[in-house]
Write a structure and sequence with these properties.
Blueprint (H helix, E strand, L loop, with lengths): L4 H16 L8 E5 L6 E5 L12 E5 L17 H9 L5 E5 L5 H5 L21 E2 L1 H5 L9 H11 L4 E4 L3 E6 L2 H24 L8 H9 L6 H13 L15
Helix pairs in contact: 1-6, 2-5, 6-8
The structure holds zinc ion (ZN).
């Protein structure tokens, strides 16, 4: 599986960036779909993302079961990833996190979390809110089985991000780079929106035209996208793991 090494390195980098940018802490995780087996994905064993290395990556089927024999503890909420990969064939990477700045928007629907800053455009024009209680009643709020994950994926539908009431968010994208970028800018957009709200007056969200114009310039491996990935990876101390899109090392 040596040909998977660059992808698994990218998954390690993604873990470290999300930890360093404080999107995740002891909890939260990021996954990537298997490039040759769309019915499988890679995700770390139960470990804080800051500590994840290549050896901690586990291969899973979409129903959240490890492919090989696995005696190590696994993330309780690994089903989130499988549920979204199953529902969205074009999604290649998923992040789940509990970033504090987004939480108020999952609790109160009066002020929707939508893009208000240029880097927030990646969220898309609408961010649905999923409430686990709607279908599953009183739970511990965690997504601990595939049925709950499928219900979450249904609420995410074709959008990029779904807020999970009183819990966190899940984000889905075409690549690890894109899902990390979205997860990093999501709390920043939430902070700007919350502060703008405190100032009073009407909130001016990005228009659909502005969101479209931004997204046209940012492909998965465009110079602008790559620049952020390289910067964040170095800042997180894993610049040595970065492989350029053409296969060369940085
Ligand atoms: Zn969670």
């Amino acid at each position: 599986m040596a040909h998977l090494d660059p992808l698994l390195n990218d998954l390690v980098i993604a873990n470290r960036i999300l930890a360093h940018e404080e999107v995740v802490d002891a909890y939260g995780h990021v996954s990537v779909r298997h490039p040759d087996r769309p019915d499988r994905f890679f995700l770390a064993r139960s470990l804080a993302p800051e500590l994840v290395t290549h050896d901690d990556i586990v291969e899973f089927t979409l129903d959240g079961q490890p492919v090989g024999q696995e005696s190590r503890a696994l993330y309780l909420e690994r089903f989130i990833h499988g549920g979204i990969f199953e529902a969205r064939p074009n999604v290649m990477a998923v992040v789940h996190a509990h970033a504090e700045d987004i939480l108020p928007f999952g609790i109160v629907s009066a002020t929707p979390l939508r893009p208000v800053i240029h880097s927030g455009s990646f969220l898309g024009a609408h961010v649905p809110i999923w409430d686990i209680a709607d279908k599953f009643g009183d739970t511990n709020l965690l997504v601990t089985n595939i049925e709950q994950a499928r219900d979450l994926a249904k609420c995410l539908a074709g959008w990029n991000v779904v807020l999970m009431r009183g819990h966190g968010f899940a984000a889905a994208a075409r690549s690890l780079i894109e899902v990390v970028r979205m997860a990093v800018f999501l709390p920043r957009n939430a902070r700007a929106l919350l502060k703008a709200h405190q100032l009073g007056g009407q909130i001016k969200y990005l228009s659909q035209g502005e969101i479209d114009a931004r997204n046209r310039g940012y492909g998965p491996y465009s110079t602008e996208t790559w620049r952020a990935w390289e910067y964040w990876a170095n800042k997180a101390g894993v610049g040595n793991l970065v492989t350029r899109p053409d296969g060369t090392k940085t």
